Amino acid sequence: MTTRPAAKSPHILLSCGEASGDRYGASLLTTLRGRLPEARFSALGGDALRAAGAEIVQPSDRLSVMGLGEVLGALPDLLAARRRLRALLSGGGVDLFLPVDYPGFNLGMARHARGAGVPVFYLIAPQLWAWGAWRAGGVRRAVDRLGVVLPFEERYFRARGIPAVSLGHPLVEDHPKSEVDRTRRRREERLLDPAAPLTIGLLPGSRAQEVRALLPVLREAFVRLRADSPGRVLRGVVSRAPGAPVPDDPGDGLRVSGEPLANLTRDLDLALVCSGTASLEVALAGVPHALVYRTSPLTYALARRLVGLDWIGLANLVLERPAERPLVREFVQDAARPAALAADLGDWLASGARRAHFASGVDELRERLGGAGVWERAADEAVSLLRERTGDGR
User: Fold this and answer.
1) With contact defined as beta carbons under 8 Å apart, do 9 and 393 qualify?
2) 198-243 pLDDT per residue, tens
3) Which residues sit opposite 59 in a β-bridge?
4) Are strands 11-16 and 255-257 parallel, antiparallel or unpaired?
5) CB-based contacts of 66: which residues, under 8 Å, 6+ apart?
6) Which CATH fold topology does 176-369 show?
7) 343, 356 in Cβ contact below 8 A?
8) Spatial separation of the C-alpha atoms in residues 256 and 276, rounded to whole Å
């Protein structure tokens, strides 16, 4: 691989194909700007990166898909984004490529970048430990450095010859322990007071197919819980991730909120949460919840054959809980039925002992995920790689 000299003002290209990646990319960009004030930042991304000052060369709002059928439907947009980024990376003007998560797209872009002489610092490692360990060679060829956020990942990737660096998990910074403890005490007071109104969060995910599959189920579960709790005032709020097709009026008295989860979770007493980054964030915020996942039958059948894990929830995985003692219960595919979900939330309402056990698990989860300073560590690694490979990190 050849290495080009950097321009006096380095040009850094980010690629963030999903809502969580857009948010992470924006945090990294903000920190990097303090170290490289003259740098130019461009991105495949969304509103968060735009607000942070990136030039959006390709919007990401139509790219956040998963599953075979969904990917096929988005193929024209994915191909257009690939052409745009490949042209930028081949044009000689990019000095550092920072892909964030989104491995189905970003690994190919990373391989192209390295072939074009652009150093690659990949953040949020592909989950090879869940499935696809055979892809380790492809990751090794695609990255100069890999930033990992889960406690077991650095050891896993280094054992496969991939230069991984542990950053800690960025969500820990969004939920300081002092604030989580304070919110927990207020939440427990409401849960113990039969006259206190309670707020139930419904988080159907950020991808269009997740929302279509889960929102009706979560809505019916909320209606059932309300019917099963005649003595309580229950208010439901649907979290709408950026770009997610959540209707303005979901019905059944539910309101919609576009607030960031770091803000919304402070007001939630219980929640039903789609599997993914949001489930980890809700756990770190200390909100008792059930984890829910549904996808197309074909996608699920393929996943069952490929994934060899007991859990799909990140909190359960990080804590390495045995099957009989999860931090939160998981309702996957056919098990994700409104009656079962309503019953689980009802159990959270009734059992102070379960809530106390959950609070203890949240503290352990925080300890395992590492301390503050994630974006400072990531920015240090990015600048180091830029200087190492180009001789100029200004």
Assistant:
1) no
2) 999 999 998 888 899 999 999 999 999 999 999 899 999 999 987 7
3) 45
4) unpaired
5) 207, 209, 295, 299
6) Rossmann fold (3.40.50)
7) no
8) 20
Class of the CATH domain delimited by 11-168+371-390: alpha beta
**If we measure between CA atoms, which residue out of 88, 133, 91 comes closest to residue 109?**
88
pLDDT for 40-95, tens place per residue?
Answer: 999 999 999 999 999 998 887 666 544 444 455 556 778 888 899 999 999 889 99
Nearest-5° Cα angle at 363, 283 to 381: 80
Q: Would you state the structure tokens that stand for residue 356, as one six-digit string?
A: 């106390």
Q: Encoding tokens for residue 45?
A: 């991304």
CATH 3.40.50.2000 maps onto the chain at: 11-168+371-390, 176-369
Q: How far apart are CA 135 and CA 140, in angstroms?
A: 9
pTM of the shown model: 0.79
- Calculate the alpha carbon distances from 155 to 150, 308, 310, 381 in Å: 10, 19, 20, 18
Point out which residues pair with 111 in neighbouring strands: none
- Residue written as token pair 């003002």: 9
Is the distance from CB of 349 to CB of 152 less than 8 angstroms? no
What is the enclosing helix (H) or strand (E) of 330?
strand 330-332
